[in-house]
Structure formats: structure tokens, C-alpha cells
Amino acid sequence: MVFRKLPGVSASGMGLRLSQKFVFLLFLSGLVTLCFGALFFLPDSVRLKRIFLSKTEIQPVTVGSGSENDVREHLKRPSDQDQQRGMTPAKGETGSKPKSLNRKPSVSHEAIEERLAGGKAQEDLTLSGFKTESASEKATSTDHGASSDTFSFKKFQRCLLKPALGRDNGKPADPRTNERREKVKEMMKFAWDNYKQYAWGKNELRPLTKNGHIGNMFGGLRGASIIDSLDTLYIMGLMEEYNDAKEWVQTSLDLNSNGEASLFEVNIRYVGGLLAAYYLTGDELFKYKAMELGEKLLPAFNTPTGIPRGVINLGSGTSWSWGWASAGSSILAEFGTLHLEFVHLTELSNNPIYKEKVMNIRKLLNKIEKPHGLYPNFLSPVSGNWVQHHVSIGGLGDSFYEYLIKSYLMSDKTDEDAKNMYYSALEAIEANLVQKSPGGLTYLAEWRGGILDHKMGHLACFSGGMIGIGADDGAPEKRQHYLDLAAEITHTCHESYTRSNTKLGPEAFRFDSGAEATATRLSDRYYILRPEVIESYMYMWRLTHDPKYREWGWEAVEALEQHCRVESGFSGIRDVYTMTVSYDNMQQSFFLSETLKYLYLLFSDDDLLSLEDWVFNTEAHPLPIIRKSCLQDEATQDNTASA
Ligand code: DMJ
User: Fold this and answer.
1) Segment 33-72, tens digit of pLDDT
2) CA separation (Å) from 541 to 167, 199, 404, 553?
3) CA nearest 542: which of 607, 478, 462?
4) Where are the alpha helices (DSSP H) in 351-415?
């Protein structure tokens, strides 16, 4: 083969023959390709990827659609976002688990030092499921922009309108009210001390048999009463008890359980309890635990619609619907009661996935056709259609409505969809469910395919407070009406208490066959230390300052003391209409989290956890209103100051 000589260039330039040159160039280009490729396997390659890949390629998949395919696609891509999130695929979703999935959230250097200063041995930190962060890991995590380091607790505190605990921890000036408040604090200490003595680390105390109960709601997680009590102990100033609780979280709260949990219960009690403890104390331990647990709940959303199933195995991520829920459906009050906590998980982790998941639920519910504007209790996570037309503001439906108005309030009144959905739902409730009894009591009936069941559950009594806190943002001509409606419902719920012999309310009361706010069935007569009626007293007190709400709260304290207090704690009772009490032998964790907290707030000044700054999740864990504009201004100020 003859090569034509190029002018001025020797065929054997640099002393190499053309064929040698060709081999050399081939080798050189191979080397370049190798180096370039190797860069992608280095641990911190995100910057390079940003340079070489288009933005869309490195963006997390929008899981808003929630489809299984979307999630699977996302998991297949070994991107840095995956590493960040450490997302666990649902069982069977991917053949292999990305290496980084087991990575635990890291602890900041300061947090470790603080804990060591507190006398904890280093091993304790690892025992509690924490991993100390190496310099390279820390650098990597901050580089990704999804690091929790971006949340500043100090900034958040500066954006509160009032100190979280008020001027003087909410101590009321009136001595009688203060005495009542002290009494509630004593009840909390008594409930806590007995739990500690007989059931430490278990989920609930069995006060009659003096032992612990674990149950099967929390998928093998322990210490529900501890997590549910953290914020109550803290606001009551029971610091020794709070410190014991915190130490337990640090050393013994094991999130690597492998059991079947209720997504809803784990979210409202554990995630909610840990988030509230973090926002009140600023202790990073709670933040990391909340984030670690939140991540374990994500696989429940891997359904064709993104509507999560009710039960999840916290170890494998497999999820399924409750056996008792018709046709494999998900429950409105369960998948509709994740919004507040998940928005805060995104806020703290700077990882959009949590918010995306709940916004997807919101979108679906907003779009779907609703019978008479009502939201039935059962929805298929596969088809996204209602499964049957049973509507209730009590069990199975309740906290979905609560989370709509609270999402709006928590967003600093920017979440217009939540607002619109809430007020439309309320209109439908008024048009279809609100009833007046022959005796003049306003109540919320249940709706079964157009037929009314004239029964109201204890659970539905939270709605007095809910309608109250939403009154001010309704249409101007409706505001007073909503406040009146809230007061009427709260009055009816109070009647369900006063009409029993123990002055505690039954699980459900009826308004038919001559009944007016009383239980007619034996199976509805029990009281399990539930908070809803007292919760409405607390909100109505804050909104109106009508002294009757404090009096009603005090009646409840006296009844609890007389009928539910036993030698070793508080117990639910089987029949509120009989004075020969029979106990259910269970001190529910929500008694410490909600019932006693709401009572304490009822007898405190309004600046203790001011409603201007906080919303309470459905387990009474306070979560702060997110003031985006203030947080951004604060960030700008910080940057200017440090420049
Ligand atoms: C609590 O766990 C929560 O308030 C939930 O929303 C409903 N049930 C109990 C208390 O009754």
C-alpha cells in the first residue's frame, strides 16, 4: 500500500514509522478512555457527572407519579442520589441492592463530642445504630446538597415568633389553674415512673399485671411510650425523666427491626415523636433517628398509584394491605396522615423524596371523583379508585381531614391545595353528615353509600378542635359559623362524658332509638384513655378563652383519677356507665403523648407551644410552621455576615 507524502511532513517524523505512530495513537486514546471511565467509579464523582452528564440525567426521578416503574428505574441507576437516600427497594423490585443502601445517616462531629461530653462511651454510639462519619464521607455528603447539614436549628429558632416554651414555660398567673397544671404534671410523672419501673423499653405498660406490652403494631420497634413521651416530659420540665428517655433513644432504640408495622402508627408516634423532640431540643440524635426511620418507610409507596399500603416490613421493605380492609384497599386515615411528618423529613434532610411521596397522594385525592364531595374510607392502591362508599369523620377517616387544614397552617398558609381541599370537604361534611339530635345536640353521623348511621365515635371528637383552628381561614362570612360549629361539636362530646356514670366518654355514642350521646351497645362502652375530647377542649380554650373548657378539662382529670388510676399507672376501663370498674390493663402510649399533654396545655398560658408557631400532629407531637421566607432571609443574612 502506498502512502502519499504530505508536503512538509516527513513520513517518518519523530523518527517513527507511520504504522508505529498508529499503534501509539491507539494506545494513547485507550489510556484516555480508561482514565475518563475510572473517574466515574471514584467515590466522589458527582461534580464530574454534573459536568459531563446533562442535568436531567442526574436528577432524581420524579416519584410524584409513584409508579413502580419509576421507582425501579430510579433504583437501577447507581446515581449519587441513590447513595444519598440509601433507598431500600421493595422486596423483589431489583435483583441487587445498591451497595450504599445500608449506609446509616451520619452524625456530625459536634454531636458526637456533645454526647461524649455527656459521659457516653463511644461504643454506645455504635450500639444505638449510629456510625461516626469519616472526613471523606462528610465531604461527600455535604457535596450532594441533600445533606442534613443544610438545616440550621439556630435559623429555625430565630424564625419562631415566640420562644417554644413561652415566657415562663407557660406558667399561668392564676394559682388555681397552676395547681391544676401541677396535678397533670404529677399524673404524667406517675404514669411515666410506673412505665419505667415495670415496662421499660416495652411499648406500653400493663398497670394491673405490672409488666410490659409489645404488641404487633410497630414492627418490632420498642419503646413507643418513651418516644411518645419525650416532648411531654420536656415541656413539663420533667428533665430527669426526659434525660432517661433520651439516653434510651441513644443507646437502645434499634431501628433495624424486621417485623410488620403499621405505616401510620410508626409515622405518627415514632417519626412524629422524634421530629418533635428534635425541634424542641435541637438534639441531633432525634433528627437522625427520624430520618433513618423515615427512609425505612419509603418502600410502602412502591405501588402502581403511589398510595402506600397499610403494613410494611421494616426490614425487607415488603408491604401489603391490612387483611381486614376490603379488596386489598388502603385506609384514608392512614395514607392521608403522613403529610406533616414527611414534609418535615424533607425539610430536615433536604431530600425531596418524602414531600414528593405525600404530594402524590394529595394530587390523586384532589383529582379523583368524590361522591357528594365526600372522601370514602377505602381506596385501592392499585387502581386508585374508591373501594366502597363508607364515610366517617371518626375511625378510618378522621386524621385525613385534620392533616389537610394542618398542612395549610404548617406551610405558613401557602399550601392553597390543602386549604381548598379542606374547606370543600368541610362543606360536604356539613351538607351530608352534620345532624341535630331531637335534644338539640349537633353531631357528625357516618355515611354508608348515602344512608346515615346516627353514631359518633370518640375518635370523631377531635373535629371540634379541627373545625375551630380552621375557622379563621374560611370564607369571611363563614368564620363565626365554623367557630360555632366547633363549639357545638365539642359540647356534644362533653355531653357524652357527663351522661355516663364515670364522667368519661364511651368509644361510640348514638343518636337513635331514643339515645342522645350515649352508647347503646355493650361493645361501645369502653374508654381507653383516648385524648380527642380533651384535645378539643384545649383548642377551644385557646380560641375562645371560655372558662368552661378548663372546667370540663378538670372534670376529666377528676374522672381519670377516680376511675383509671390504679396502683401502678393508668388503665382503660371496659364500661363507662358502671361504677364497679373493670380495667383493660393497658396504659396506652397516647395517654402520655396526647391526653396528658393536652390537659397540661389547657392549664398553661397560650405561649407554651403557641399555635402561631406550632401545629400538633395527630399524636399531639408539635411540629413547627415552616416559614420559608424567613428561613431564606435568615440564610441571606448569615451569608452577608460571613462574607
Ligand atoms: C392516637 O394514636 C391518634 O390520635 C390517632 O389519630 C387516633 N387514635 C389515637 C388516640 O385515640
Assistant:
1) 554 444 333 333 333 333 333 332 222 222 222 332 222 2
2) 19, 35, 22, 10
3) 607
4) 353-367, 398-410
- Which of these, 150, 147, 145, lies nearest to 105 by C-alpha position? 147
The Cα–Cα gap between 593 and 590 comes to 5
**Average pLDDT of the chain?**
82
Q: Name the DSSP class of 206.
A: E
Among the residues of 216-297, which ranges form H helices? Answer: 224-236, 239-252, 263-265, 272-281, 284-297
Q: Which of 268, 507, 527 to mutate to test the pocket of ligand 1 (most atoms within 8 A of CB)?
A: 268
Is the CB of residue 604 below 6 angstroms from any atom belonging to ligand 1?
Answer: no
Residue 90 in grid coordinates: 421493595
Closest residue (by CA) to atom 1 of ligand 1? 619
Q: For residue 613, which of 136, 160, 249 has the smallest C-alpha distance?
A: 160
Nearest-CA residue for ligand 1 atom 10 is 530
Rounded CA gap, 464 and 460, in Å? Answer: 8
Q: How far is the CA of 220 from the centre of ligand 1 (A)?
A: 20
Give the pLDDT confidence score for residue 38 in this predicted structure: 42
Nearest-atom index, ligand 1, CA of 269: 2
Q: Cα–Cα distance between 58 and 104 in angstroms, integer?
A: 23
Alpha helices in 433-580 (DSSP H): 463-470, 479-498, 532-544, 548-559
Distance CA 367, CA 417 (A): 11
Nearest to 361 by CA among 434, 413, 305: 305
Specify the pTM.
Answer: 0.79
Q: Are 542 and 534 in contact (CB under 8 A)?
A: no
Distance between CA atoms of 243 and 281, rounded to whole angstroms? 11
